[in-house]
UniProtKB/TrEMBL annotation:
Record-linked PROSITE patterns: GST_CTER, GST_NTER
Alphabetical GO biological process terms: glutathione metabolic process; L-phenylalanine catabolic process; L-tyrosine catabolic process
Keyword Transferase found: yes
Native species: Phainopepla nitens
GO cellular component: mitochondrion
Superkingdom of origin: Eukaryota
Protein name per Swiss-Prot or TrEMBL: Maleylacetoacetate isomerase
GO molecular function: glutathione transferase activity; maleylacetoacetate isomerase activity
Annotated InterPro entries: Glutathione-S-Trfase_C-like (IPR010987), Glutathione-S-Trfase_C_sf (IPR036282), Glutathione_S-Trfase (IPR040079), Glutathione_S-Trfase_N (IPR004045), GST_C (IPR004046), GST_Zeta (IPR005955), GST_Zeta_C (IPR034330), GST_Zeta_N (IPR034333)
Recorded metabolic or biological pathway in which this protein acts: Amino-acid degradation; L-phenylalanine degradation; acetoacetate and fumarate from L-phenylalanine: step 5/6
Length: 210
C-alpha cells in the first residue's frame, strides 16, 4: 500500500492509526499542503484524488480517498483487531461519534476554510471546535468507558485524538471537556497512536519532531 499523507493532517492521522492498529506496513508519500502553493493542487495529485485532499491510499489495485471510507475498507479486509464493535447499538454509537467529528467539527476548521477567514481564523476555529466539543462531551457521558464507546478502541477514537490535537493547536481550553481529555490521554499511551503521531512522520519538520 501507498499512503499519500501530510504529517499535520488530522484526516491522514486517522488512517495512519488504523494502518498501525491493523499491522499493515505501507510506503508513505508526503503531500505538503503548504509548500509550492499546496502540492495537493498539482495535476499529478488531482489525477489521484479529484478532491485534492489527503489522505489517499493505493491498496489492492484501487485508490481510495476520504478517511472513513479507507478505514471501513481496512476494517472489512483486515478485521482484526476490530475497530467497529459487534453489537449493533455500540457500532451505531461509534459511527455517530466518528461522523460528529469528521462532518460536524473538522471540516469547519480545515485549512481551506481558515484561509478564507483571514484575521478571524483563530476565533473561527475555536468557536467551531468548542461548539462541537460541548456536544461531544455530552454524548460521551452516555457511551464512554475507557475509550469513546466502552473499553475497546474503535473508529470513534481514531477520529477523537487528531481532533483534540487540532483543538490544542488552536488554543481551545480543554478544561470543560474532562471526558474527552481523559480518553485522549489514554489513547496517546497506545503504540499505534504514538507511531502515527504527527511529530513522528517522515515529513515532520525538524523543529516539530518528537
Amino acid at each position: 500500500p501507498i499512503l499519500y499523507s501530510y504529517f499535520r493532517s488530522s484526516c491522514s492521522w486517522r488512517v495512519r492509526i488504523a494502518l498501525a492498529m491493523k499491522g499493515i506496513s505501507y510506503d508513505l508519500v508526503p503531500v505538503n499542503l503548504i509548500k509550492d502553493g499546496g502540492q495537493q493542487f498539482s495535476a499529478e495529485f488531482k489525477a489521484l484524488n479529484p478532491m485534492q485532499q489527503v489522505p489517499a491510499l493505493k491498496i489492492d489495485g484501487i485508490t481510495l480517498s476520504q478517511s472513513l471510507a479507507i478505514i471501513n475498507y481496512l476494517e472489512e479486509t483486515h478485521p482484526n483487531p476490530r475497530l467497529l464493535p459487534q453489537d449493533p447499538k455500540k457500532r451505531a454509537q461509534v459511527r455517530m461519534i466518528a461522523d460528529h467529528i469528521v462532518s460536524g467539527i473538522q471540516p469547519l476548521q480545515n485549512l481551506s476554510v481558515l484561509k478564507q477567514m483571514g484575521e478571524k481564523k483563530m476565533e473561527w476555529a475555536q468557536n467551531c471546535i468548542t461548539s462541537g466539543f460541548q456536544a461531544l462531551e455530552q454524548i460521551l457521558q452516555h457511551t464512554a468507558g475507557r475509550y469513546c464507546v466502552g473499553d475497546e478502541v474503535s473508529m470513534a477514537d481514531l477520529c477523537l485524538v487528531p481532533q483534540v490535537a487540532n483543538a490544542e493547536r488552536y488554543k481551545v481550553d480543554m478544561g470543560p471537556y474532562p471526558i474527552i481529555a481523559r480518553i485522549n490521554k489514554a489513547l496517546l499511551e497506545l503504540e499505534a497512536f504514538k507511531i502515527s503521531h504527527p511529530s513522528r512522520q517522515p515529513d515532520t519538520p525538524a523543529e516539530l519532531q518528537a
